[in-house]
Amino acid sequence: RVNADAPLIDPQLIDLLVETIDATGAGTVFAAPGVPCAHDGVDPVSRDAFNKLVTEAGADPVAQEHVTGYFKKHEDFVPIAQVDIEPALQIGGMRFSVDSERDMAFIEELYRRSGVQAGDLNIRDAIRLCQSDPSLMDISNMVRQKPLDHRGGTVLIRCDGGHDIGFGHVTRCLALARALRDRNGYGVVLAMTPDPVANERVRAEGFAVHTWPGGMSEQLWLQQLITDHKPKAVVYDIRTGLSRYAIEELKQDGHLVVAIDDGSARRWASDIVAYPPVEQVQDLDWIGYRGTKLVGWEWTIFPDARRAPARSLHTEGAAKKLLISLGGSDPLNLTWEIACLLTRLRGRIEPHFVIGPGFAQGKLLEKRLKALWPTAQIAVQPTSLADIFADVDAALTMYGVTAQELAAAGVPALYICLDQDHAYSARSLAERGVGVDLGLADEIDWPQALTVIDQLLQNDDELSLMRKRGPRLIDGQGANRLAELIAETVKLRAAA
Q: N or C: which end of the chain has fewer CB within 10 A?
């Protein structure tokens, strides 16, 4: 049995396994206990052993999910032979299976570096590549192999994104979805309002999207999805009018309910709630809440943080690289206004503009920015900001998920806030010395703000300190932590 998700096989080892079964009369063969083996995805089984598996254990969940994994959990079921793995393959900590997009990227990079034709890469050569450059393993080191007794299941995530509300909710829900899928083995589907940009962004990540049909209440629509998918958990990251009582009715099938950064009464119907440590969370009424309340920067959810590499800031007097990123949609159309204001700092800054997927007239804005700032860097709908973060000295950003990503990446930032809720959150980061709060967008004194921006960019000592504080405050593992907690809670409920 050769698994298609383990494309790097070794003919010599396969011959040895088959010869061992033939010589011993065993039903199957494994490596000696405790001996690591980088080779995976090949299981020789005798016909008698396979027939017994089908007739006597065919209904067992482990046999149905992993087939030959049943033999490992029931070592007395058929005779098992052991084989000595040669030292070249006795490697632990390496996985060459393809279970996620990260795994695919890892295998593709191995092929690129080896230069061989598709299908010709041997696992021995792959091991040597990884030993010569251990950083290769970082591409997929977050992906975990599912345990034999894992039964999977589905998690439903309810979130929205678009020009009016931005794409922060979608960004962090995708981070959680990837962690649930890649680290914990769950199928994930997302329920969203119709928005072509937001919906396509989710589909591009490989997740199914169900859009809210017109003329149907949100509760009825979700009830249909829950009936169809039978999720183990439902995650809500929304700002709609869905009530606490609607969620309580929806959860009558027993699924886990998780709410992200939700200040509404919906939190009372949630089994798990997660928030950054901002003032407004402490102001909420929590008396009598019986669920799990998670409050802290360690629960901040966004894509994997890639810390900006340690480097010296530009020499005194040199232009500083300033990122201008006003969210996925820039609902107030501030990018152009700020670009014009920043011309007063021409020669002292090198701007790097980001035009998000929801920008109104993004192509026209790009054209105008090129004319105003001919040497500026302009990123149009980038799939990731991580590489940009690593190349800038500071950022001017709309407060939201991006502001938290910047802190985790060690990039000092200046925050513009859309509403009072964002202002409270921005202040909590500014008070910790990782950014500067410029205030509400419609109240900012821009000439004064320009002075603040200039003074920060010229203060190399403060910039250096801010670069160190951010990653100490936010490590970027919130999505992984929450996914792990969801999986563990679902498992405990099933056991109970």
A: C
